[in-house]
Amino acid sequence: MWLLLLVALTGALTTDQSRVLVERYNRVQASIEESDYSRAAGELNGMVRDFGGSEFGDELRFALAETYFNLGQYQRSLGTFRQLLDSPRHGYIRPEAMYGAALCYIMLGNHAQARLMLEDLSKQGGYDRDDRTAFAFGVLSYFQGDYRLAIERLSGLTMPEARFFLAKSHSREGKPLQALLEFKEITSEVPNTPLATMAHFAAGQALFLNHDFDGARAKFQFFIDEFPASGLADYAHYFLGCALIARGDHAAATEHLLPLTRHRDNFLAAHAGYFIGYAEMALGKPEDAVERFQRVRANYPNTKIASFANLQLSQAMLATADTVQTLLSTSQLAGMFRTGELSGVGNYLSGVIFYQTGEYAGAAGQFETILTRYAETALREPAAAMLLLSLNTAGQFEKAVAIGAKYVADYPGDTTAWRARTLYFLADGLYYYRKYHEADAHYQRAYTLDASADIAPYARLGRCYCLYHLGRLEEAAGGFKGLLAARTTDTLYTISAYLGYGYSLFNKGDFLASLDVFEALSNTFPDNELASVPGHFYSGYCYYQLEYYGQAVDAWTLLMNKYPEGNQKVPEAAFRTGDTYFKALEYDKALAAFAFVVERHPASEYAPPSQALIAQCWYNQRRYLDAVREYQKFLDLYPSDPQGPSVRKSLENSYYLAGQEDSLVMEDFLKRFPQSDMAAQGQYDKGKALFDAGRYEEAALELQKTVVNFPGSLLAGDAQLLTAESYAQAEDWKQAARAYRKFLDYFPEHEQQAGAWFNLGTALFNVDDYAESLTAFQRILDDHGDSEYAESAQQNIEICRKRLGAGVVEENPPESGSGIAPESPPEAEGSSQGGQQ
Hints:
Layout: H1 2-8, H2 15-33, H3 37-51, H4 57-70, H5 74-86, H6 93-108, H7 111-122, H8 131-143, H9 147-154, H10 160-172, H11 176-189, H12 194-209, H13 213-226, H14 233-246, H15 250-257, H16 266-282, H17 286-299, H18 304-313, H19 344-356, H20 360-373, H21 380-393, H22 397-410, H23 417-432, H24 436-448, H25 456-469, H26 473-483, H27 491-508, H28 511-524, H29 529-545, H30 549-562, H31 569-583, H32 587-600, H33 607-620, H34 624-637, H35 644-661, H36 663-672, H37 677-692, H38 696-709, H39 715-729, H40 733-746, H41 753-766, H42 770-783, H43 790-806
């Protein structure tokens, strides 16, 4: 919409008004880019006041409505959209205003009005097929609680915002793994954006909502570590505290919740206070809990949580899990030619002066004036030729071609020497416009005119370059060879002829003959950069093609030493020198050549690949930390280079390999590349190392980070299984049972299903849940009857049945041994992950 406004400015207001409006628009745009919507709204209000009665009033009000929306002022945004709907100046703005109003109704909770507005919008031309309409309907379904319909409407939409609500809908439908995968796609596709930050947060909510408190703990801790300055960080502390309470870690929970009791968001403060009271009850501090519940009841009497606080005050124990959720979601909506009054002669002389002083536009304007005002004078043809020359020199080849072709067609009968120049300059325009066939024809017309003696050699040279570009290399080489001595007094002409001859031979593959030409060129004109630079460069290239790599490097090095700065072929020569050494595995020499490019020619197109290869040299020498430094330097110097993604991947590889040698580096790797595919292996290895060291609680936390941050990784299942075995080793059988169930639910295709069912049965047995334990062991017989666990499972079923028949547990049940004996509690079977044996 802003683009519509900017384009419209050119045809309505006065020059001063347009300038003022554009300046004010630019200030608004700058504010929006900085997400300073308050400042943008203030400026837009002023613009509506000053220009709202103009034909741009609708666009200004629309922009103001969008800004209100981004400020969360949905009622004001709706009012402005409604104003546009009631009296639109332009028809095209009405459906856009309807879309904006529908979103406002959704955010204000007026779902019925939102539906009516969207149904009306769907009747507008093309909007029934617009992805935004489908997105709005999907969001409406989400907020109405119809999550299946939301999934149906949002599936297939590529908008990141649509995928965000699709993931939240999967979460609400009890599909946390699907939600995690969708959120992961968002954080990968639009990293470092507010939406990506929200996706990380919502992933934690999805786990929390589906009672995966282990995963929620890991995800919210990750969010707090990675996004400490986010406006959602305090809410992450809240959910983390609640997840810790759900896991029974009440003391740690209070550390996260206590600072929130002074939060300016009363809703958050009230809930934090309530759950602190809950935790204090569990910690055996009833007096502190009573005081906490009383504060919640007194300070936040109108909140729902106050009712629960009242309930807790009258009860000795905490009621079973009531989960509080906070919904935080936002939508992002995002010529001139000078003409004089002189006579024809005066215009011509003015044009020549302009041309000689480098003011080519002014020159073209003067010559064009002659063609339009004095076309019947003798100055017409010279003016036409000079106009084309001026335009070509100014780089306006398309215009030169258009004017020249029309002029030659309008005045076909001229046969003077100036007509040869006109044809030649028209051919030049076609050549630089890459119309080589047409250029060839006009060059030939130029040198076949009787009065073309002075221009003919140049036209022939131009034709040879056309043949070269058309791939007619044999003809081009012969033509260039015949022109080498055509203008010996014109150095530039002679150099151009030699270069064309050398290029033609080189591209024919006749590298030896081409080498003779380029060496002759650099030896004949050693002090002329136009000759010596390509001469040395292509001499080296010819040697390279002939596999004389030492001579190639010598030629390129000579060029680098002679012209270390300024010429565009020098960095290419240095790059190719480095590449030659690189392929020969002479990394020290390669590093020196690549460094020459980066340091001496940082703006060259060869600087980024040189920096990348510097890093690769260190990588190939297994000096991974040096490679990390140089890959990072590449990203710092060339953040938008096309090689960026591959370099980031190489940086990750280097960091990971360095981390294999140093655990501190691996820690840094995991912090810097939490979303890396290799981070899954690194994170898993970190948890596995803690497991092997017997630090089971820490191992469980680190392994859960693998599960929740890399849900699609092949290691996620292994990490979840090892999480369960960590709890089993710590004899925290309740957590172990939860973890084994999560493994079985999340990873039904994992090869360790049978072992997990067996160990789940063991964990349940150890918390005296014999019925569920029997069910788990029976599952092995039903689904994995041919597994190694079947025989032991049958024995354990009998033990469970006896325990269930007795109705009580033996006072001193026998210790688990290496085998399963009748009346003995079943023993957890180990897995490939190194669990309990």
